UniProtKB/TrEMBL annotation:
NCBIfam families: mtc
Primary location group: mitochondrion
Topology relative to the membrane: Multi-pass membrane protein
Pfam families: SFXNs (PF03820)
Gene Ontology process terms (BP): amino acid transport; mitochondrial transmembrane transport
Transmembrane regions listed in the UniProt entry: 128-155, 180-201, 269-290
Transmembrane helix in keyword set: yes
GO molecular function, one term: monoatomic ion transmembrane transporter activity
Highest rank taxon of the organism: Eukaryota
Family of this protein: Belongs to the sideroflexin family.
The protein's name: Sidoreflexin
Keyword flag Signal: no
Swiss-Prot/TrEMBL keywords: Amino-acid transport, Membrane, Mitochondrion, Transmembrane, Transmembrane helix, Transport
């Protein structure tokens, strides 16, 4: 899978912060032989087998590796020079496949493949987990006021919008108004649903204080999920009327299809609803269970 496909996948999974847990497991696995891990270098291609699920997983974990955030300017320039030498057929003797693959990994993590410009650190794919995780923590903070609820929802959607824009497909120019429309729609829907649900919960007289607190912990999920779907529809609604390109098994465009566009938008919207579930539903659920266990232990001890 090439880098442009990665950017399209990100547009369908802006809350992929949960991948960090899988990434830690993969990065900590025992090293495989270099001949297996680093095949003969291919410029612009993935070093993992894209015909298997595991290969695609390794490819994406390689791209979001946060260690590339700490690459120095000197190291970056060395990687760029090495890739230029490979392209021009003037590689110095002794350069290995490992060095070439690592150089390409660093370049793809920092440089936009279409514009050739550096992507700001907080908005790189490799920076999405470390810079986005604090935002998720803010969304899940207990006993939030209306002001803090609005702030964290706005910050989350603003960060997502910046990452979307900086990793956009720039092969076809997209009006800035389209991004702004999607951003406003996402922020408006997230804030409206989060504040509205908080108001409903606080006014629910039949809820006990403990139940009210428990329900409030799950409010960020419907707010974020609805904002994600709204963003998809506003950013890509023209595809429903114009259709999207259909490719054959060799990658050649054979036409456009409105049915394929509807199918793609439905799958993308569903993905944006499902992906936030682990990071926004599991922590409140685990905390509720732990609090219940603590209460039971206290009662037993007393």
């Amino acid at each position: 899978m090439t880098r442009p496909h990665l950017r399209e996948l990100y547009a369908a999974s802006e809350l992929s912060k949960t991948a960090s847990f899988t990434a830690l497991c993969i990065w900590d696995t025992p090293a495989m032989p270099a001949s297996t891990e680093y095949p003969p270098f291919r410029l612009g291609e993935s070093r993992f087998d894209q015909g298997s699920f595991y290969g695609r997983l390794r490819h994406f974990l390689d791209v979001i590796d946060p260690r590339t955030l700490f690459v120095s300017e000197k190291r970056f320039n060395e990687c760029m020079n090495l890739l230029d030498q490979f392209k021009n057929g003037s590689l110095p003797p002794g350069v290995t496949n490992v060095q070439l693959w690592e150089a390409q990994k660093i370049k793809q993590a920092i440089i936009h493949p279409d514009t050739g410009e550096k992507i700001p650190m907080p908005f790189r794919m490799s920076g999405f987990v470390p810079f986005g995780t604090p935002v998720v923590v803010g969304l899940l903070l207990p006993n939030q006021t209306f002001a803090s609820t609005i702030f964290w929802q706005w910050l989350n959607q603003s960060h997502n919008a910046c990452v979307n824009y900086c990793n956009r497909n720039a092969t076809k120019p997209t009006p800035m108004s389209t991004f702004f429309q999607g951003y406003l729609g996402a922020v408006s829907s997230a804030v409206t649903i989060a504040v509205g649900l908080n108001l409903l919960v606080k006014r629910a007289e039949h809820f006990s204080p403990a139940t009210r607190i428990l329900v409030q912990r799950f409010i960020p999920f419907p707010a974020v999920a609805s904002a994600n779907v709204c963003n998809v529809l506003l950013m890509r609604h023209t595809e429903l009327s114009e259709g999207i390109s259909v490719l054959d098994d060799k990658g050649n465009v054979v036409g456009t299809s409105k049915m394929a566009a509807r199918h793609a938008l439905m799958e993308t919207s569903l993905t944006r609803v499902v992906l936030p579930m682990p990071v926004l539903l599991l922590p409140p659920l685990i905390m509720a269970i732990l609090e219940r266990c603590v209460q039971l232990c206290v009662c037993v001890c007393v």
